[in-house]
Design goal:
Layout: E1 2-6, H1 10-21, E2 25-29, H2 33-40, H3 51-60, E3 64-67, E4 78-81, H4 96-108, E5 114-117, H5 125-133, E6 139-142, H6 152-157, E7 162-165, H7 175-182, E8 188-191, H8 193-224, H9 228-236, H10 257-271, H11 276-299, E9 308-312, H12 327-337, E10 341-345, H13 354-359, E11 363-364, H14 368-372, E12 377-380, H15 392-398, E13 403-406, H16 413-418, E14 422-425
Parallel strand pairs: 1-2, 1-4, 2-3, 4-5, 5-6, 7-8, 9-10, 9-12, 10-11, 12-13, 13-14
The structure holds nicotinamide-adenine-dinucleotide and uridine-5'-diphosphate-xylopyranose.
Nicotinamide-adenine-dinucleotide (NAD) binds at residues 6-12, 29-32, 35, 82-85, 97, 100-101, 119-120, 145, 147, 149, 255-256.
Length: 432
């Protein structure tokens, strides 16, 4: 099959290398010339396990190529649209990149080709795009993506579900089947474009609700002397609830959950449906930085304005260098706004977007011992397993009596207390 992918970001690049791995001749188009140049020379532009190897193999076997030219898509059977759909100030999804991509496709694709929209787009978008391309004989289906960053290749290879939203055909062998056949074997769910578009937002919003509920429970646990890890261990053992997405933390972030909950609420407002559960999850999430900074403030012996704080972890979760909408940056920002002198360390500091750190006025250092030296408080923000392997005896010597605020409940509380550090877990005994 001759396949095209538009957008070489997390979703597009992952899809392109995996489609090539499956033997499809794949052309990936991006407007970012520098990115296309790097990828064409075999340099992976995002941090994902297995991606460099698949990229190298695709280029070497000529099953994969990158270009800035839409003309290279003229002979494609199926083209996946994977461009960004960021938040507008009112919370709605910015569809300019999707519309620009589809505008270009209208001029190059042949009749009979299928466009599959992988970008997360609000209800009604696929049908609008289908109406636009129908006169050219081009079909449009919705095929939302569910991959997680840091597990992107694995998620593509072993999807929980393959979602195809289309009403162009109800029978076998139509555009929906053609698109489904490109994915690895998996559970294919076919529905209308509207249901598929909404199902994507509904899934991400449900994950956000689950985490916010856990973070609210963690706050209650700390007040009543319960332990959130035990509470969620019990909840997760109930098959109806499920054990995933019940980890307390500094709040949910990343490039999807924040913008997708905002866009879902926007759609709700357009149609007169309030979705208070989603609104409440966002309100709880926005309160986490204040909760964490308050815990630091009331536990260290000095006013926050005179405190030295070390932040461990800047990325929005472990296993990635992505800091887009990272709760770690929000917590750092809150502490800096309260006058703390903050130094941050992240294992992927070298790969992190320096512009985002500068915008948040965060000083990053490439050595955890330098970051924590002389600190009054050490705040663990990302669940990097490397933080457990640090020489905590050395840190305790360099920052005697420091308060460790472990927002991810990652570290060994007993060991740290033995070393003379004050340990505060998130929703655990003696914590915050
Ligand atoms: P990204 O920002 O990493 O990548 C988008 C790419 O599209 C960039 O390389 C950009 O240069 C390119 N682009 C923008 N406009 C273009 C155009 N007109 N023509 C060609 N290329 C263009 O974005 P992403 O994280 O891959 O997300 C893409 C979409 O997939 C979004 O709608 C997002 O919500 C959704 N999604 C993302 C994830 C994730 O984990 N990141 C998971 C599921 C779904
Ligand atoms: C998410 C969805 O999981 C994925 O299906 C969708 O396609 C894209 O958006 P991603 O943004 O990669 O994926 O991150 P995810 O693993 O969902 O984590 C989101 C945020 O929630 C992170 O900040 C993470 O640290 C936080 N989180 C997650 C928790 O705080 N607790 C948990 O139990 C799980």
């Amino acid at each position: 099959m001759r396949v095209g992918v538009i957008g070489a970001g997390y979703v597009g690049l992952t899809s392109a290398v995996c489609l090539a791995e499956r033997g499809h001749h794949t052309v990936c188009v991006d407007v970012d010339e520098a990115r296309v140049r790097q990828l064409s020379s075999g340099v992976a532009t995002i941090d994902e396990p297995d991606l460099p190897e698949l990229l190298e193999r695709g280029l070497r076997t000529d099953t994969l190529r990158f270009t800035t030219s839409y003309r290279a898509l003229a002979d494609r059977d199926v083209v996946f649209v994977c461009v960004s759909t960021p938040s507008m100030p009112d919370g709605s999804a910015d569809l300019r990149a999707v519309d620009a991509a589809v505008g270009e496709l209208a001029t190059v694709l042949r009749a009979g080709a299928v466009v599959a929209v992988k970008s997360t787009v609000p209800v009604g978008t696929t049908r609008r795009l289908a109406d636009r391309l129908r006169p050219n004989g081009i079909h449009v289906v919705s095929s939302p993506e569910f991959l997680r960053e840091s597990h992107a290749i694995g998620d593509f290879r072993h999807p929980d579900r393959i979602l195809i939203g289309s009403d162009d055909d109800t029978g076998e062998g139509g555009p929906a089947d053609l698109v489904a056949s490109l994915y690895p074997p998996g559970r294919v769910l076919k529905m209308s474009p509207e249901s598929a578009e909404l199902a994507k937002y509904a899934s991400n919003a449900f994950l956000a609700v689950k985490i916010s509920y856990t973070n609210s429970l963690a706050e209650l646990c700390a007040r009543v002397g319960a332990d959130i890890t035990d509470v969620t261990r019990c909840m997760g053992a109930d098959m109806r609830i499920g054990a995933h997405f019940l980890q307390a933390g500094p709040g949910w972030g990343g490039s999807c959950l924040p913008k997708d909950t905002a866009a879902l609420l926007h759609t709700g407002r357009e149609y007169g449906v309030a979705l208070p559960e989603v609104q409440s999850a966002r309100t709880t999430n926005a309160a986490q930085a204040v909760r964490i900074a308050d815990a630091v403030g009331r536990t260290i012996g000095t006013p926050t304005t005179e405190a030295r704080v070390a932040a461990l972890g800047l990325t929005f979760k472990a296993g990635t260098s992505d800091v887009r909408d990272s709760p770690s940056l929000t917590v750092c920002g809150e502490l800096i706004a309260r006058g703390a002198q903050l130094t941050a360390y992240d294992p992927r500091l070298a790969a992190i977007d320096g512009e985002m750190l500068r915008a948040a006025a965060i000083v990053g250092v490439d050595d955890p011992y330098l970051a924590t030296k002389g600190a009054d408080a050490i705040v663990v923000l990302t669940e990097w397993p490397q933080f457990c392997e640090l020489d905590w005896a050395r840190i305790a010597e360099q920052a005697p009596g420091a308060v460790v605020v472990d927002t991810r409940n990652l570290l060994d509380a007993a060991m740290l207390r033995e070393l003379g550090l004050t340990y505060l877990g998130n929703g655990t005994g003696g914590g915050f």
